[in-house]
Amino acid sequence: MENPQMGFGVSSIICFVLVLSVMVIAARGQDYEVMIMLKKMIINAPTTLQWTDSDVCKWNHVQCDKGKRVTSIQIGNQNLQGSLPKELEKLSELENFECQGNNLTGSFPYLTKSLQNLFIQDNMFSSFPNDFFMDMSNLEAVCLDDNPFPQWQVPHSLEDCVALQNFSAQNVGFVGTIPDFFGSRGPFPGLLNLALSRNYFEGGLPASFSGSSIETLLLNGQNSNSKLNGTLEVLKNMTSLKQIWVHGNSFTGPIPDLSHHDQLYDVSLRDNQLTGVIPPSLVTLPSLKVVNLTNNNLQGSPPVFENGAKVDNNMNTGRNQFCTKIPGQPCSPLVNTLLSVVEPLGYPLRFAESWEGNDPCANTWTGIVCSGGNISVINFQSMDLSGSISPSFATLTSVTKLLIANNHITGTIPTVLTSMPLLQELDVSNNNLYGRVPSFREGVVLKLGGNPDIGKDKPTSGADSDSSIGDNIKNHLQIVIGIVVGAVILLGIGILLFIKYRRKMKPKGKVQNPNAIVHPRHSVDDNAMRISIAGVGGGGAPLSPRSNVYPVEAGSMVISIQVLREVTNNFSEENILGKGGFGTVYKGELEGGTKIAVKRMQSGNMAEKGLSEFMVEIAVLTKVRHKHLVSLLGYCLDGDERLLVYEYMPQGALSRLLFHWKEEGLKPLEWKTRLTIALDVARGVEYLHDLTQQIFIHRDLKPSNILLGDDLRAKVSDFGLVRLAPQGKASFQTGLAGTFGYLAPEYAEGTNMEISFDSTATGRLTTKVDVYSFGVILMEMITGRKALDESRPEENFHLVTWFRRMLLKKDLFPMIIDPTIAVDDETFASISTVAELAGHCTSREPYQRPDMSHAVRVLSPLVEVWEPTEPIDETYGVNFEMTLPQALQRWEDHEGNSTWNSTYSSSSANTNTNGQSQAFPLGHL
Ligand SMILES: *[C@@H]1O[C@H](CO)[C@@H](O)[C@H](O)[C@H]1NC(C)=O
Ligand SMILES: *[C@@H]1O[C@H](CO)[C@@H](O)[C@H](O)[C@H]1NC(C)=O
Ligand SMILES: *[C@@H]1O[C@H](CO)[C@@H](O)[C@H](O)[C@H]1NC(C)=O
Ligand SMILES: *[C@@H]1O[C@H](CO)[C@@H](O)[C@H](O)[C@H]1NC(C)=O
Ligand SMILES: *[C@@H]1O[C@H](CO)[C@@H](O)[C@H](O)[C@H]1NC(C)=O
Ligand SMILES: *[C@@H]1O[C@H](CO)[C@@H](O)[C@H](O)[C@H]1NC(C)=O
């Protein structure tokens, strides 16, 4: 016989136990288990760290957020031993992990993607995951120095760290060449400090360093056989540099011109093979404090630094090839002449090594033959020289034979050489000279053979045919390699995604259809993003005709300040589209008439905040591309200047057409236009929330951030406040992010924040902040009233409150509709549906609000009533390898083909686009 009584008892006990365990978990916090594991694996944690409390948030060196999730572990310099558990990855709110200066061993574990700072230097970690940095788009500072990792290459996953400011990996076993992606065209627009000293790097400095914003560059003391080599020329174009340490390498050639480096204070070039004279501009550089030059092959007069800089120029122990030991004492005129002769040849090392002292005829100087104390023969034959023939040769009046055959010398024969009084023979055969041969005195023997272009006005395109063929082959090779690498990476990503997906799905025990591993659109987006950041793929064409993947080179996004000055007429007043707290937006016009919008960030005291918003915006916009999100076309970071370049949206902001149409002499927006705009916005935001690999939260949706094209199709803009979910805590500390009137209550008041730390749905809950703002925008479109309207009586001042009240009163509802909307039955039904959606979106509790995808589902059938032919493609077909103007053209063509039939062509013709209207999203404050 069954005993219902007993059944009830058992189930209530189970219930009780469940409730109890839930309560225990709630009390201890979700990260308890992981922290206990960490405590166990650090051998001396109990004594040193005194981690004893049952609440891990009370542990020393540990910090939590309001939801009791661990955000910081800072256990540096605690004399710890042991290793780290791989479960650390489960601390999904962790922002700072610091364990530097301990004796920790074992492999370093993966950590969560929300990490911002990582300091693990001075430990004994035996390895570090190669794909550790994948998707770590919040990571700002990394220090891995002095760990005994086995030899490895700089991991490519690092390219995902678009917010990276400081990267220090000294003595960590890196091999190979310094990757291009640290350069100005790479994924790190905000990189300030790069330290890669004491590794095993070889090869030259990457050309991509040119134009970078790096301030501290430490590359000293490579341990490989060949060390870093080549010239330092690219440093000339790194004018943000403050500190340069390249000592202990094999660099050759002269010290580059550093005269534009007005913040440079510490330059260590010692222990290389640098040659040539020290540039006078370095000697007089005002900011300079320390200069280290010993143990090179520097030539000319030993410098006296006028700026009081400390110099390590030890004449007795330090090797250099100065002409004298007395600083400031000039070299003899003959030595100066010879130095200027070899300058256009790049001060070859073989001369520097042998040209000692102040008298070329006192010792045997390579290439110089003297007779009776005068130079009689210059013999530079077959020395692998490149560069050009210096006119200074003419100053050597005692020379009878000038022999420079069998090199790679380019340019022309200087006419002034005809003035050399004793010259008997000039042999320049087998070089790459061109141009008219000047007329020498009768009796001078000229040997010109083996210069294919000699006598011609210009070098034919094949003038340096050897090298250009070489370059071509190289280019092709690069393309091929690029494609192969690209394909391998894609395959890799595919596999990783597959693994990740499987891992994610496993606990739920679902059988997956292997064909459904990756949503096709995701794969396009992911790959496009990854490639954009990797900069792989030299070829401009899609990898395969069917793949829909466009190799995007992030490099193509950097635009020089000069170009931006030109197109905005030097940022002239007339070109201002709008101003805001962060700076000014200018209209620019490219050659051929295509227009762009240039956002110039304010410098000065706002600079810090500006920089982070600038970087967030670049990071987000290079990752997300969607038809209804304003596209970033490029950016520029030049000294204090920070500029973002967008596609130009000729009709300006929605706020202009919605609230200022009268002043602007425009027609009010028809309902179906408003509806289409609403759907466009919903789709753009849905993409941010659901359709990218990560979840992005816009945080500042409002009509002034919704921009319209001439066809009145909308795009969401202004991504400066966007946060990845889970949310960065920093943004809360500043408090005010977003705009009053559009802020969700839980966000504005900060009271319900615990809810968003609810175990599983952190991201989804906080996306509801945007849903709320969207609901407010819908209300504005229905009523034609602003979110906050000071002209109304106090009880009607707040649109959301008033609207929701009116919504409940069926008979009053028609009165809130914007009187400019012509309302027939069909329109009224449509408006009622949207009003309901608006009410739903602005529900007080976040969980009561729908997802953005729900809004899309509600709005799209309403739009289709009028517009059944809306093109559905979301990919756009824009190839970001194109130049800026080409890309713009493609966009315009695309827009032109759109079947949307604007009823506003007449009004747009007389639109005043440079009036005071907010034609571009403005400040948040
Ligand atoms: C690491 O351990 C060694 C001895 O095992 C000790 O001498 C050294 O000071 C420790 N280093 C740190 C940073 O604790
Ligand atoms: C990067 O380093 C600089 C100077 O060393 C420091 O001022 C800055 O705060 C660091 N940035 C981060 C994100 O730690
Ligand atoms: C630099 O070193 C590499 C070997 O690591 C060598 O192949 C290359 O020719 C060197 N370049 C120069 C300019 O010396
Ligand atoms: C430096 O910049 C100029 C102008 O952008 C460029 O022509 C030159 O090639 C660059 N030099 C180096 C060494 O990168
Ligand atoms: C450069 O030289 C100064 C003066 O001798 C010295 O104090 C400093 O440590 C040196 N810097 C480097 C990086 O060697
Ligand atoms: C060296 O040249 C100077 C002037 O150019 C001349 O006066 C002198 O005689 C020359 N010496 C010899 C040994 O030719």
TrEMBL record:
UniProt feature, compositional bias: Low complexity: 899-914
Q: Which GO terms describe its molecular function?
A: ATP binding; protein kinase activity
Q: Which superkingdom, per the lineage? A: Eukaryota
Indicate which residues the UniProt annotation says bind ATP.
599
Disordered: annotated segments: 899-925
The way it spans or sits in the membrane comes to: Single-pass membrane protein
In the record, which residues are listed under signal peptide? 1-29
Q: Does the keyword Transferase apply?
A: yes
Q: Locate the Protein kinase domain: which residues?
A: 571-863
Q: In the UniProt record, does the keyword Repeat occur? A: yes
Give UniProt keywords alphabetically. Answer: ATP-binding, Glycoprotein, Kinase, Leucine-rich repeat, Membrane, Nucleotide-binding, Receptor, Repeat, Signal, Transferase, Transmembrane, Transmembrane helix
Bilayer-spanning residue ranges: 477-499
Give the UniProt family note: Belongs to the protein kinase superfamily. Ser/Thr protein kinase family.
Q: What is this protein called?
A: Protein kinase domain-containing protein
